[in-house]
């Protein structure tokens, strides 16, 4: 559940969302999106936590190019549009370059 | 609950942890650490989500220097040591430069 990423540098997409009360299909879509992410070229791993109010998903990629390709992915876009309408009351996405990491 | 950060670039510290079953003082310490973080020079915001297994906290800072100062903070160090022993079965910290963001 902690992504086994290679030594930096690599890229992270931090997606923070405020959930609405609607759960209509959200869980199965989230799992499907994660499956799709794993199939993307350059995918390095994903970490996710969700409580009643806030969800944070961090996806790791080897390059900005991988992130762009993922964004352009049609099915992902469909989920984003539906997310905008139904599942989230707000979200923020941050594209980051991981410069250092350490673990225990 | 979504941090109101300024336009990029800025820095993010992504802290992903696997929780142990022990909750002895964890919640109050986590709140205390967040208060301390807010007092740090260069602090821009924090986002946090925690479910039964995984916790993700993302702290935002204006510079790498702010992150270093925070790391050196004694009380933070104490909480880290205690966290290592009691609250977490594993964690990973990633220091990232936020290059782009967008929201809804």
TrEMBL record, chains A, B:
The keyword Oxidoreductase is assigned to this record: yes
Top-level taxon of origin: Bacteria
Residues spanning the signal sequence: none
Metal-binding found in the keyword field: no
Gene Ontology terms, MF aspect: monooxygenase activity
Protein name in the entry: Antibiotic biosynthesis monooxygenase
PANTHER family reported in the protein's UniProt record: ABM DOMAIN-CONTAINING PROTEIN, BLL5343 PROTEIN
Alphabetized UniProt keyword annotations: Monooxygenase, Oxidoreductase
